[in-house]
Amino acid sequence: MFNLLMRSADWNTYKAEMPLERMFEYTEKHLAAYFTTDGKPNFDWLIQYPCLFMDEGIRDEVAYVGRVTRHRISGKEVEIEYQIDREVPVLRNDFIYEHRRHFDMTADWEFSRNHWAVKEVDLYQVLFHIMRLPVRQRPEVFKIEERETVDPNLVSAMMPFAPAFNGVYAAIEAAAAQIGMTCHRADNVWEHHAIIQDIVQLIDFARIVVVDCTNRNPNVFYEAGIAHTLGREVILITQSKDDIPFDLQHIRHISYLNNGEGLADLKDKLLRRMKTVTGR
What we know:
Order of helices and strands: EEHEEHEEEEHEHEHEHEHEEH
Strand content: 25-35%
Number of helices: 8
Number of domains: 2
Radius of gyration: 21 Å
Helix content: 25-40%
Mean pLDDT: 89
Low-confidence stretches: none
């Protein structure tokens, strides 16, 4: 499924509004019912799916693929913040109109009215078939999804699995929670037989990856390499700057002390950085 947001405005501001009365126009009834809770649109569910951001028209108007990252009801409107997927080429409305059946956009006037619709269509699959978008080369040691899918609310922590780091993990969790994000690390996720697959999936799906270089743990360094290779936003933390690998020393890091005051300071610094990265 995907969200279709049609409005006559500039999508390069990364903020927008939509009248609540325009929600679920040009949407199948069963989909509108599924995404409605207590008579109101369930935006927490809706933003789990990708979006097609379009201007009105059927000519050379520009459209983008991306995701809504935040939402807030304000009076009779929903205010949103969003990100554009720069891996997907910019689209034009005449191209979408030509292939409108693939996007389930065949209704009259759908290209000329502000609205938020939900389409029971795999957006990336449609684009792949129509545009022949390139796919990522698959590694052999572990598996990654053919299409990149990032959870805008996920923070992954890569760090040693030891009791001495429980307070550090709690600080990362607290910073993430303060801006509405969830933090996980591989030892509290078990979805695959091989732990490396759980680790890679956590990294691949994450909006932010926090890497603790303390004690120069080789597994953590390996995970940091994966995160950088996949293009994730990486925040390095350490109890000693000497533990930062030579080839990462040009990247800014957060130093901390593993005590009550030090962990509180770590949480505050992580929170500031996470806010900067996400724009929250």
